[in-house]
Amino acid sequence: MDNLLLKAKHWQVFIFLVAIYFISTYCKDNSLASVAVFSILLVGYIGWYALLGNSLYMYLPKKIECNSTWFLVDAFLLIAFYGTIMILFDGNLQVNGVVAIPFFYLFFAIAHLFWFPAVLLISIESGSRPVFSQYAGTMLQLFFWPIGIWFIQPRINKIYNAIQANTLDYPRP
User: Fold this and answer.
1) How far apart are CA 166 and CA 116, in angstroms?
2) Residue 77 to residue 115: CA distance in whole angstroms
3) What is the pLDDT of residue 173?
4) Is residue 50 situated within a structural domain?
5) CA 110 from centre of chain
6) Where are the transmembrane segments (predicted)?
7) CB 3.0 to 4.6 Å from 168: which of 13, 151, 162, 173, for a disulfide?
8) Residue 44: which domain range?
9) Model pLDDT, residue 2
């Protein structure tokens, strides 16, 4: 699966994500098919970021340490919380007071979903741990996925080609 994600072309990823988005816009009733399509959209969208972060982590230079477990837990929590809110509360959950404090972590988890793959991509390309100014643009490209896919995926393909040519330095086993 990791190689499939790394060697996929930008138009293939774009068509996959856009197709499941448009299918979900036509399923607005509360039927089982609507819930299934929404679940595919949620797992497909957040799952793409989780798979991207996990795939890039395997090729991170050994001298750079990152915690992929925290990232994957955040991705799972986003899927679980958002799915629960949409299914149980029809997307209309309103919280206030002290009950809202745990929901602030969801904002961090969303930012982490874009931050982690951006840091890994820049780390692999440069061979060193990047500073915020180096990965901020990549993070924004990941955030604006319909446009960002066209710029991010060719860079991922270059990493895949370097892996195939065995010219990537310090891959993790």
Assistant:
1) 24
2) 16
3) 47
4) yes
5) 9
6) 9-26, 32-57, 69-89, 101-123, 135-152
7) 162
8) 2-164
9) 54
